[in-house]
Amino acid sequence: MKYKTDNMNYMKINNCWSILMVFFGLISIGCSDEYLNKEPLSDVTAENFFLKASDLELYTNGFYRMFPESSIYSGDAKADNIITTTLSDEMRGTRLIPTTGGGWNWEYLRDINFFLENYQKCDDENAKKHYGGIARFFRAYFYFDKIKRFGDVPWYDYTIDPSDVESLQKPRDNRQFVMDRILEDLDYAIENLNEEVQAYRITKYSALALKSRISLYEGTFEKYRGITGYEKYLQSCIDASEELMNNAPYGVYTTGNHSSDYMDLFNSLETETSEVILSRQFTQSLAIDHNVNYYTTTSSYGRPGMPKDMVNSYLMKDGSRFTDKANFNQLSFIEEVSDRDPRLSQTIRTPGYRRKGESLNIAPNLGATMTGYQLTKFVTEPMYDTYDESVNDLPILRFGEVVLNFAEAKAELGTITQSDLDNSIQMLRNRVGMPPLILAEANSIPDPYLENQYPNVNGTNKGLILEIRRERRIELYMENHRWDDIVRWKSGQTITQPLRGLYFPGTGSYDLDNDGQIDVVLFEGDTPGNQTAGIQYIKLGADIFLDENNLVDPQPDFNNRTFDEKRDYLYPIPRVELQLNPSLTQNPGWE
Question: 191 near 183, Cβ under 8 Å?
Fold first, then answer.
């Protein structure tokens, strides 16, 4: 990732990272131990650098490369939110122990610790506070990624001398020890970072949002595994979320036009800073781009689709449950998407959908989606449909997630009130004109459909927790949260449930956008002659498969997936790393 400047308030692109590579040789090395003890390659030494605020800024700009690019939605694609032509190894249960790589890389940590050992040479006290806070933010971000992936990991807050065998062969530290160090870093960042709204730069608000995310993750991860002490992490989430909600200039962007606010948040080229706290910036002029349009509109790049169980999860517009309807799985497409939570029609193609900048309504393209539910979130004008041409900014931290974190942490801790819901989740529902979530009603009759998805939820707030999970899945769809949520909830069996798509009674002609014109013809045998332009001709048993209930089966070869509860929540440590460091132990189930 590279960055551009605008009065020092935007991420640097191209030039600054190139300079950093020359200055410090911050080049990715495959073997983690080799990199941890590697001296900086530089004609500029630590003694004559780190002396000015511009030095600190220049160095810390390189840390922004840690943020995801279009892989922002990878956490949804490797779980059950986005179904593509090839299921992820996580979904199929086919992960293997890698020889090298596998996420066990430490180059960024070496760079961060080197900075923290040298930045105090600068005489600018304000710069030291701010850029020291940035480095501590990124060390927390780095270690959180390692904790999620591997569990216990060795904690290093210093650079390692090549002769320091004890450090190089250090065993893994307990995850709670590492997590506490992560939160200490974030507390330092919160205390010292600049307090301002900058969507492309780390600020105090970024650190608060990250602390909210990390604390919720650890609190629920430990709670659902019966680990004592989880309460402090849930309270940490609540505290960070409340500080951001009560003292920061963020809110859910609402113009009163409930039909477009949610969609506009993601398909606008520039970040909406009233809600997005931190985002990845893209720009056409410097060819810094991503693939979202191409990914969602073409028939040759994965054909991503929303699964039917998620479509079923969206409430009716009046707040009632769609899954309480009789025969809800056998309704036509037009019937099932009518009068639903407006976020559904702002996330997939439904009747009346128009591409941004276009005037014609268009139906779902079954050739571009495995399930029939074609994604529209993040999709911009057709001029960006070519491979690697999308340039709309992608959110990394946003206010909507923070209010969801707050509500979930309070519900899991058992301290939530109706007022808490009104001041958090209701903001999200107000944006799209949805009625409030009522605590007593949610707990009185938990949704059986959600109970089936998350069978390990229990307790007084069971119904409410299920509703918060519904809200989270809908609001944060395609924003890289789903896999992490499945892991922290200890809900791996959720992703083994059947994957399904649109309902079709069988062969015939179908109008999918309710304009009175045929959009799709399903046929068996020979391809129909005299085909009409603009109509999709789909062969059953070849182009599309239906199950025994006439639902699209996007992956008929993978209907018996399994999830190993003792192994699959973590990833294996590569074999070479175990050889290089005999003090390391392999994760359970991967021995």
Answer: no
Distance CA 283, CA 294 (A): 17
pLDDT digits (tens, 9 = 90+) for 442-464: 999 999 999 999 999 999 999 99
One-character DSSP codes across 249-277 = S------S-TTTHHHHHHH-SS--TTTEE
Residue spans of the domains in the chain: they are: 53-66+103-237
Show the tokens assigned to 97: 């122990």
DSSP code per residue over 62-107: GGGGGS-SGGGGHHHHTTTS-B-SS--HHHHT-----SS-TT---H
Is 56 exposed, middle or buried (CB count within 10 Å of its CB: 0-12, 13-18, 19+)? buried
Q: Nearest 5°: phi and psi at 555?
A: -140, 70
Q: Given phi > 0 = left and psi -120 to 50 = alpha, else beta, which region is 186?
A: alpha
87 closest CA partner among 553, 491, 471: 553
* Closest to 285 measured CA to CA, from 470, 37, 10, 58: 10
Question: Model's pTM, two decimal places?
Answer: 0.92
Q: What is the pLDDT of residue 36?
A: 47
**Amino acid code (one letter) for 589:** G
SS (H, E, C) 7-37: CCCCCCCCHHHHHHHHHHCCCCCCCHHHHHC
Largest CA distance in the chain: 79
Question: Mind listing the pLDDT tens digit for each residue in 454-490?
Answer: 999 999 999 999 999 999 999 999 999 999 999 999 9
Residues 61/16, Cβ–Cβ less than 8 Å:
yes
Least Cα distance to 81 among 456, 366, 494 occurs for: 494
Q: Cα–Cα distance between 3 and 54 in angstroms, integer?
A: 15
Tokens at 162, concatenated: 């090549």
pLDDT band, very low/low/confident/very high, at 70 (cuts 50, 70, 90): low
Which fold would CATH assign to domain 53-66+103-237?
Answer: 1.25.40
Residue pair 381/355 in contact by the 8 Å Cβ criterion: yes
Residue 179: its H or E element: helix 175-192
Q: In this model, does residue 146 exceed pLDDT 70?
A: yes
Distance CA 302, CA 316 (A): 30
For the chain, the average pLDDT equals 90
Give the integer Cα–Cα distance in Å for 434 and 442.
Answer: 15
The sign one gets for the Cα dihedral 434, 435, 437, 442 is negative
pLDDT interval class at 294 (50, 70, 90): very high
Mean pLDDT of all residues in 29-48: 51
| pLDDT for 42 | 45
